[in-house]
Protein backbone atom coordinates (compact mmCIF):
# COMPACT_ATOMS: atom_id res chain seq x y z
CA UNK A 1 0.00 0.00 0.00
CA UNK A 2 2.84 2.44 0.80
CA UNK A 3 4.45 1.68 -2.57
CA UNK A 4 1.23 2.68 -4.36
CA UNK A 5 0.99 5.97 -2.45
CA UNK A 6 4.65 6.70 -3.09
CA UNK A 7 4.29 5.91 -6.80
CA UNK A 8 1.19 8.08 -7.05
CA UNK A 9 2.98 10.97 -5.34
CA UNK A 10 6.02 10.69 -7.61
CA UNK A 11 3.78 10.50 -10.70
CA UNK A 12 1.83 13.59 -9.56
CA UNK A 13 5.09 15.45 -8.92
CA UNK A 14 6.52 14.56 -12.35
CA UNK A 15 3.30 15.55 -14.15
CA UNK A 16 3.10 18.81 -12.16
CA UNK A 17 6.76 19.64 -12.79
CA UNK A 18 6.26 19.04 -16.51
CA UNK A 19 3.22 21.30 -16.53
CA UNK A 20 4.97 24.11 -14.67
CA UNK A 21 8.04 23.72 -16.85
CA UNK A 22 5.89 24.42 -19.91
CA UNK A 23 4.04 27.41 -18.48
CA UNK A 24 6.55 30.14 -19.40
CA UNK A 25 6.70 28.87 -22.99
CA UNK A 26 2.91 28.76 -23.16
CA UNK A 27 2.58 32.24 -21.68
CA UNK A 28 5.10 33.69 -24.13
CA UNK A 29 2.98 32.59 -27.08
CA UNK A 30 -0.07 34.66 -26.16
CA UNK A 31 -1.42 36.78 -29.02
CA UNK A 32 0.08 40.23 -29.52
CA UNK A 33 -3.45 41.61 -29.19
CA UNK A 34 -3.97 40.03 -25.77
CA UNK A 35 -4.80 42.28 -22.83
CA UNK A 36 -2.33 41.51 -20.06
CA UNK A 37 -3.67 43.97 -17.50
CA UNK A 38 -7.00 45.79 -17.46
CA UNK A 39 -8.18 47.81 -14.48
CA UNK A 40 -11.64 49.36 -14.41
CA UNK A 41 -11.91 50.28 -10.69
CA UNK A 42 -15.54 49.10 -10.53
CA UNK A 43 -14.86 46.75 -7.62
CA UNK A 44 -11.40 47.63 -6.29
CA UNK A 45 -8.20 49.52 -7.09
CA UNK A 46 -6.55 46.33 -8.38
CA UNK A 47 -3.02 47.04 -7.12
CA UNK A 48 -2.98 50.80 -7.61
CA UNK A 49 -1.67 52.89 -4.72
CA UNK A 50 -0.93 56.52 -3.92
CA UNK A 51 2.31 58.30 -4.73
CA UNK A 52 2.90 61.22 -2.36
CA UNK A 53 2.54 61.39 1.40
CA UNK A 54 -0.85 63.11 1.40
CA UNK A 55 -2.23 61.82 -1.91
CA UNK A 56 -5.57 60.09 -1.39
CA UNK A 57 -7.42 57.56 -3.57
CA UNK A 58 -11.19 57.27 -3.26
CA UNK A 59 -13.93 55.59 -5.24
CA UNK A 60 -15.83 58.12 -7.35
CA UNK A 61 -19.28 56.96 -8.40
CA UNK A 62 -20.26 60.44 -9.66
CA UNK A 63 -17.73 60.51 -12.54
CA UNK A 64 -17.27 57.01 -13.99
CA UNK A 65 -15.67 56.63 -17.40
CA UNK A 66 -17.00 53.32 -18.74
CA UNK A 67 -18.37 51.60 -15.68
CA UNK A 68 -19.88 52.30 -12.32
CA UNK A 69 -17.03 54.29 -10.78
CA UNK A 70 -13.58 55.75 -11.29
CA UNK A 71 -10.60 56.42 -9.04
CA UNK A 72 -10.43 59.95 -7.64
CA UNK A 73 -6.89 61.11 -6.85
CA UNK A 74 -6.83 64.08 -4.49
CA UNK A 75 -4.46 66.04 -2.21
CA UNK A 76 -1.61 66.05 -4.72
CA UNK A 77 1.07 68.46 -3.53
CA UNK A 78 3.28 68.24 -6.63
CA UNK A 79 3.05 67.18 -10.25
CA UNK A 80 4.94 63.98 -9.32
CA UNK A 81 2.21 62.91 -6.88
CA UNK A 82 -0.44 60.57 -8.23
CA UNK A 83 -0.88 56.80 -8.49
CA UNK A 84 1.26 53.80 -9.37
CA UNK A 85 0.92 50.07 -9.80
CA UNK A 86 3.53 47.32 -9.88
CA UNK A 87 2.97 45.18 -12.98
CA UNK A 88 6.16 43.08 -12.93
CA UNK A 89 4.20 39.84 -12.74
CA UNK A 90 2.48 40.61 -16.07
CA UNK A 91 5.16 42.27 -18.22
CA UNK A 92 8.52 41.14 -19.63
CA UNK A 93 11.49 43.05 -20.97
CA UNK A 94 12.10 42.84 -24.71
CA UNK A 95 8.40 42.98 -25.58
CA UNK A 96 6.42 45.95 -26.80
CA UNK A 97 3.29 46.82 -24.80
CA UNK A 98 0.54 49.37 -25.42
CA UNK A 99 -0.55 51.53 -22.51
CA UNK A 100 -3.87 53.37 -22.28
CA UNK A 101 -5.53 55.32 -19.50
CA UNK A 102 -8.41 57.78 -19.35
CA UNK A 103 -8.00 60.85 -17.15
CA UNK A 104 -10.17 63.78 -16.15
CA UNK A 105 -9.66 66.78 -13.91
CA UNK A 106 -11.72 69.72 -12.77
CA UNK A 107 -9.70 72.90 -12.42
CA UNK A 108 -9.49 76.35 -13.93
CA UNK A 109 -6.90 75.52 -16.59
CA UNK A 110 -5.60 72.68 -18.72
CA UNK A 111 -3.26 70.32 -16.88
CA UNK A 112 -0.48 68.14 -18.21
CA UNK A 113 -0.88 64.41 -17.49
CA UNK A 114 1.63 61.67 -18.20
CA UNK A 115 2.01 57.93 -17.94
CA UNK A 116 5.47 56.78 -16.94
CA UNK A 117 7.00 53.33 -16.80
CA UNK A 118 9.84 52.44 -14.44
CA UNK A 119 11.72 49.16 -14.61
CA UNK A 120 14.82 47.46 -13.30
CA UNK A 121 17.49 46.81 -15.91
CA UNK A 122 19.11 43.39 -16.28
CA UNK A 123 22.08 44.44 -14.08
CA UNK A 124 19.51 44.32 -11.22
CA UNK A 125 20.83 47.63 -9.85
CA UNK A 126 19.81 50.34 -12.30
CA UNK A 127 16.25 51.66 -12.54
CA UNK A 128 15.11 53.49 -15.66
CA UNK A 129 11.97 55.63 -16.08
CA UNK A 130 10.45 56.60 -19.41
CA UNK A 131 7.40 58.65 -20.35
CA UNK A 132 5.02 56.44 -22.34
CA UNK A 133 2.28 59.05 -22.91
CA UNK A 134 1.83 62.74 -22.15
CA UNK A 135 -0.92 65.18 -23.00
CA UNK A 136 -2.47 68.49 -21.94
CA UNK A 137 -5.95 67.70 -20.64
CA UNK A 138 -8.88 70.10 -20.81
CA UNK A 139 -10.80 70.53 -17.55
CA UNK A 140 -14.02 68.53 -17.22
CA UNK A 141 -13.39 66.14 -20.16
CA UNK A 142 -12.32 62.49 -20.13
CA UNK A 143 -9.13 62.27 -22.18
CA UNK A 144 -7.29 59.20 -23.39
CA UNK A 145 -3.54 58.98 -22.89
CA UNK A 146 -1.95 56.18 -24.86
CA UNK A 147 1.43 55.05 -26.02
CA UNK A 148 3.61 52.03 -26.70
CA UNK A 149 6.97 51.06 -25.32
CA UNK A 150 9.41 48.18 -25.51
CA UNK A 151 11.67 47.90 -22.47
CA UNK A 152 15.13 46.39 -22.95
CA UNK A 153 15.52 42.61 -22.94
CA UNK A 154 15.97 41.35 -19.37
CA UNK A 155 14.17 44.30 -17.73
CA UNK A 156 11.96 43.37 -14.75
CA UNK A 157 9.94 44.91 -11.90
CA UNK A 158 7.71 47.13 -14.04
CA UNK A 159 5.86 49.99 -12.31
CA UNK A 160 3.31 52.14 -14.15
Verbal overview:
The protein has 160 residues and is of the alpha+beta class. It has one helix at 2-28; strands at residues 48-51, 56-60, 70-74, 82-85, 96-103, 111-120, 127-137, 143-150, 156-159. Strands 7-6-9 form a three-stranded antiparallel β-sheet, with no helix packed on it. The longest helix has 27 residues, at 2-28. Mean pLDDT is 76; it is low at 1-32.
Outline of the structure:
The protein has 1 helix and 9 strands; from the N terminus they run αβββββββββ. With 160 residues, it is of the alpha+beta class.
Low-pLDDT segments, ≥5 res = 1-32
Any idea what the radius of gyration is?
Answer: 21 Å
* β-strand amount: 35-45%
The total of helices stands at 1
Q: What is the number of beta strands? A: 9
Specify the helix fraction band.
10-25%
State mean pLDDT (0 to 100 scale).
76
Q: Biggest sheet: strands, sense, closure?
A: 3 strands, antiparallel
Structural class: alpha+beta
Report the order of strands and helices: HEEEEEEEEE
Overall geometry = globular
Distance between the termini: 54 Å
- Strand numbers in spatial order across the main sheet: 7-6-9
Amino acid sequence: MNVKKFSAAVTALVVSAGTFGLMPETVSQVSADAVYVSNDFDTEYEGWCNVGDLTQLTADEQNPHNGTRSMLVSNRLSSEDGVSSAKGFYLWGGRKYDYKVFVKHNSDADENFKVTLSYLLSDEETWETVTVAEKAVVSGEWTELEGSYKAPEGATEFVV
